[in-house]
């Protein structure tokens, strides 16, 4: 039986030469993301913004979205986002947070239930008051910052300083680009999105660590090999594993996007995108960074010239 | 080199079989589980049969998650009123009359006593109101709950200290949990979960509820019932309260409370024998019956206001003395309203107002759809990944696939033992680990391939592959674990469910991808004695 190989054996591809394109490209995208984040901003869900989300489904299987919108707007609860979903008469309504503190939010639900109750089933109702949403913003931010710090410590203990810096740059790059994905696609940004970002942080490091483990190993074996060559060799060695893992992860996420249902498909899309970004950044961002950081800055001085390089 | 002792094989298999058996109860419904337990012969010890199962999150089984918060200002108002009443009693007993009466402040009360002699008589008694804070567990803390302060001009203030406020909030939450439990139990739902969250919050989770609005109505009501006499417009000691019968029109009601809801021993919904209108019958305890009897004897012909949460429900005229200790409340109720009111009165009043700060409700239909979608995604992901692994690594791919199936089984087994909650993001976590779990196998296989290519024999290549890949596997899984652990401590509900699955997934990969895979490859090697790698 002929087996599939996604990456040729004995490859000698010069990944590092592509840094001329990848580094400026990523820098540009990152800057654009930050600019867009500040001008356009994220589409915050009710977890962080507060408010009320309702998903209702017509009992007849036919929804009149226009009428629902008109009725909902006539409530006088301010801005309402009304959207159709699915094929069986599903409508989602999102009310902004109501002035008047925690107690004021319940009135929205009560009113909507009274009005739409006879014709629609209420599948999902979520109300988040101002206090809880502020706390969620806090814990979301703390989570991301904490994870970056925790990971930094881990890398610091486990790897040489240069490798740790290289991978943390890659991870930050992945976080920024994931946020950019949320800004551009207008995907709702909520607590599940934080979960997605943290998972991407984990995956991003996972990718870099596998390459750098090899770099470290090769560094010890070929003491005089130039950094660029060393990195190219590491990536070529680990490339078939990288592609395999990216593919299996992407396949399972694809299953989630296609069959996981409405509630989870957003999460799966972000993760799918994240897998691509993480794979890219491990090879084209974190690794070439080491060329500039100077991989052997702490070691070169004491390496004896000569026969070690001839080992292979 | 590739040797696995018999005992090691048996131990590994035993761990895996036990792990998988633990998952079995989760595949059954509760009824089947119970029926199975009962059908066992008596000599089988019950601890031998796994009975713990995964709990489905509210987002999967449908239900309501309501987070309530004690309204602290409201609580302090009630508590300050009590202080005021205590001060009033002490003033009477010590025959001191303050200048300008007692004023309520935000967290206590104050009064002005210019005469030093009066103050000297009064202050020791007032200081008795202040209690040391502490309990049997933590002992005395040295703090007191009320701070009594005097200015040279004779202004006496009694304020709750920070510790005093916290103590009262804590006690209010404890009481409220008891009351809410009685109320929710009366709804007759299965397995409601009511617990304290943080300092001043209560989380109520009720699965599979048909009418979440009713739950909220029942949770949010303070249900403070008072019997008071209607007063004169403009009199000194009256509150202006809205009257329900009169469309919310403000009505004067005497401040003096005759009997409170706390003196009720029973309340039942019923129908008025004459008008057939739904009513609530109630019975007082002895103290309540005496007070009620006395008040009704003295006030025949006057209207008696039945006040619920500062609203006059009805104000019937007292026709005759009611000394039997029972009575009825009417107020143009619907059958359900009468039912709910009876429930609320039986369960007792909340110590303070509770505000709903977060609500998440999922209908049972949507939950069932999510489970179906999650199952589908899991199957498809598993099939895709397994086909791909087989196509790439052949026989070794099959071995990885067996390890993958065991891996997923073990996640369920561990979740069952821990009685962990499976949420929709948790299902996403399972699907994701299907993709990432094979990563360890891939790392090992690629390494074996390299080692063999570099000239090693199969045995030593496999051996070296496992050894060298192991460090990388530990590194790459630790980084994932860091993110997952942070998520666990930060997230709540569904997101936490994702973190749990992810952490367990990382633990089980080490068992399946390293130990189990290695064992299977060793067995294969000894059986087939291959000359080349099968991939």
TrEMBL record, chain A:
One of its GO terms (biological process) is protein targeting. Part of the Sec protein translocase complex. Interacts with the SecYEG preprotein conducting channel. SecDF uses the proton motive force (PMF) to complete protein translocation after the ATP-dependent function of SecA. Belongs to the SecD/SecF family. SecF subfamily. NCBIfam families: 2A0604s01, transloc_SecF. It is found in: Cell membrane. Residues 114-294 form the Protein export membrane protein SecD/SecF C-terminal domain. Keywords: Cell membrane, Membrane, Protein transport, Translocation, Transmembrane, Transmembrane helix, Transport. This is Protein-export membrane protein SecF. It comes from Microvirga aerophila. GO terms for molecular function: protein-transporting ATPase activity.
TrEMBL record, chain B:
PANTHER family: PROTEIN TRANSLOCASE SUBUNIT SECD, PROTEIN-EXPORT MEMBRANE PROTEIN SEC. Signal peptide: none annotated. InterPro entries: Acrflvin-R (IPR001036), SecD (IPR005791), SecD/SecF_arch_bac (IPR022813), SecD/SecF_CS (IPR022646), SecD_1st (IPR048631), SecD_SecF_C (IPR048634), SecD_SecF_C_bact (IPR055344), SecDF_P1_head (IPR054384). Belongs to the SecD/SecF family. SecD subfamily. Part of the Sec protein translocase complex. Interacts with the SecYEG preprotein conducting channel. SecDF uses the proton motive force (PMF) to complete protein translocation after the ATP-dependent function of SecA. The chain crosses the membrane at residues 376-395, 469-491, 497-525. It comes from the Bacteria. This is Protein translocase subunit SecD. Residues 173-230 form the Protein translocase subunit SecDF P1 domain. One of its GO terms (molecular function) is protein-transporting ATPase activity. GO terms for cellular component: plasma membrane. It is a multi-pass membrane protein. Forms a complex with SecF. Part of the essential Sec protein translocation apparatus which comprises SecA, SecYEG and auxiliary proteins SecDF-YajC and YidC. One of its GO terms (biological process) is protein transport by the Sec complex. Residues 241-352 form the SecDF P1 head subdomain domain. SUPFAM superfamilies: Multidrug efflux transporter AcrB transmembrane domain. It is found in: Cell membrane. It holds the Pfam family Sec_GG. Its main location: membrane. Residues 353-524 form the Protein export membrane protein SecD/SecF C-terminal domain. Keywords: Cell inner membrane, Cell membrane, Membrane, Protein transport, Translocation, Transmembrane, Transmembrane helix, Transport.
């Amino acid at each position: 039986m002929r087996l599939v190989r996604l990456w040729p054996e004995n490859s000698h591809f010069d990944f590092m030469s592509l840094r001329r394109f990848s580094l400026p490209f990523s820098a540009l995208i990152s800057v654009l993301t930050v600019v867009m984040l500040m001008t356009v901003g994220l589409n915050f869900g009710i977890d962080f913004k507060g408010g009320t989300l309702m998903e209702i489904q017509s009992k007849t299987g036919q929804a009149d979205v226009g009428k629902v919108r008109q009725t909902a707007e006539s409530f006088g609860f301010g801005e309402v986002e009304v959207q159709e979903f699915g094929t069986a008469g599903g409508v989602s309504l999102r009310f902004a947070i109501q002035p008047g503190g925690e107690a004021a939010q319940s009135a929205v639900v009560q009113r909507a239930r009274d009005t739409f109750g006879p014709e629609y089933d209420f599948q999902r109702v979520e109300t988040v008051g101002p206090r809880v949403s502020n706390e969620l913003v806090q814990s979301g931010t703390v989570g991301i910052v904490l994870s970056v710090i925790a990971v930094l410590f881990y890398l610091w203990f486990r790897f040489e300083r240069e490798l740790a810096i290289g991978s943390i740059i890659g991870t930050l790059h992945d976080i920024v680009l994931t946020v950019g994905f949320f800004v551009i696609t207008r995907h709702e940004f909520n607590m599940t999105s934080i979960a997605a970002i943290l998972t991407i942080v984990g995956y991003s490091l996972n990718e870099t660590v596998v390459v750098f483990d090899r770099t470290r190993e090769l560094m010890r074996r070929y003491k005089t090999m130039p950094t660029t060559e060393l990195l190219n060799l590491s990536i070529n060695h680990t490339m078939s594993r990288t592609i395999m893992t990216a593919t299996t992860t992407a396949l399972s996420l694809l299953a989630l996007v296609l069959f996981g249902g409405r509630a989870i498909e957003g999460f799966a899309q972000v993760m799918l995108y994240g897998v691509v970004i993480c794979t890219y950044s491990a090879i084209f961002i974190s690794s070439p960074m080491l060329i500039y950081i100077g991989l052997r800055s702490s070691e070169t001085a004491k390496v004896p010239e000569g026969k070690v390089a001839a080992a292979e | 080199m590739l040797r696995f002792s018999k005992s090691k094989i048996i131990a590994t298999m035993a761990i895996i079989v036990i792990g998988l058996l633990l998952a079995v109860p989760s595949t059954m419904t509760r009824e089947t589980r119970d029926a199975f337990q009962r059908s066992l012969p008596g000599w089988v010890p019950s601890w031998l049969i796994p009975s713990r199962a995964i709990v489905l999150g509210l987002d999967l089984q449908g239900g309501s998650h309501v987070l309530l918060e004690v309204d602290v200002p409201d609580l302090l108002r009630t508590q300050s009123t009590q202080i005021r009443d205590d001060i009033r009693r002490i003033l009477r007993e010590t025959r001191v009359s303050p200048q300008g009466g007692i004023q309520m402040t935000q967290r206590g009360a104050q009064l002005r006593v210019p005469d030093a002699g009066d103050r000297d008589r009064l202050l020791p008694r007032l200081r008795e109101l202040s209690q040391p804070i502490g309990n049997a567990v933590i002992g005395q803390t040295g703090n007191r709950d009320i701070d009594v302060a005097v200015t040279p001009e004779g202004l006496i203030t009694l304020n709750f200290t920070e510790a005093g406020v916290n103590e009262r909030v804590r006690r209010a939450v404890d009481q409220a949990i008891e009351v809410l439990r009685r109320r929710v139990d009366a709804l007759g739902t299965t397995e409601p979960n009511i617990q304290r969250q943080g300092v001043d919050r209560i989380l109520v989770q009720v699965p599979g509820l048909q009418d979440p609005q009713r739950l909220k109505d029942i949770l949010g009501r303070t249900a403070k019932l008072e019997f008071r006499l209607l007063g004169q417009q403009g009199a000194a000691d009256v509150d202006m309260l809205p009257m329900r019968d009169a469309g919310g029109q403000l009505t004067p009601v005497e401040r003096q409370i005759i009997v409170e809801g706390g003196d009720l021993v029973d309340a039942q919904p019923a129908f008025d024998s004459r008008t057939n209108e739904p009513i609530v019958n109630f019975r007082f305890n002895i103290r309540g019956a005496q007070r009620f009897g006395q008040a009704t004897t003295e006030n025949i012909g006057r209207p008696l206001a039945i006040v619920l949460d500062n609203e006059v429900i009805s104000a019937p005229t007292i026709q005759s003395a009611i000394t039997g200790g029972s009575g009825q409340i009417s107020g143009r109720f619907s059958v359900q309203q009468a039912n709910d009111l009876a429930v609320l009165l039986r369960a007792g009043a909340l110590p303070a107002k509770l505000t709903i700060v977060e609500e998440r409700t999922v209908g049972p239909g949507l939950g069932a759809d999510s489970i179906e979608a999650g199952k589908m995604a899991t199957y498809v992901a598993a099939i895709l990944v397994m086909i791909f692994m087989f196509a790439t690594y052949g026989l070794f791919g099959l071995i990885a696939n067996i390890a993958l199936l065991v891996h997923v089984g073990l996640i369920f087994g561990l979740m069952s033992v821990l009685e962990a909650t499976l949420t929709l993001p948790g299902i996403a976590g399972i699907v994701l680990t299907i993709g990432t779990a094979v990563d360890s196998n891939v790392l090992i296989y690629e390494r074996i391939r390299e080692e063999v290519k570099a000239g090693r024999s199969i045995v030593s290549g496999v051996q070296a592959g496992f050894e060298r890949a192991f460090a990388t596997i530990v590194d790459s899984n630790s980084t994932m674990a860091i993110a997952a652990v942070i998520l666990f401590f930060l997230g709540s509900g569904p997101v936490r469910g994702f973190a749990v699955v992810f952490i367990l997934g990382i633990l089980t990969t080490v068992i399946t991808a390293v130990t189990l895979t290695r064992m299977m490859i060793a067995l294969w090697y000894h059986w087939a004695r291959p000359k080349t790698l099968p991939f």
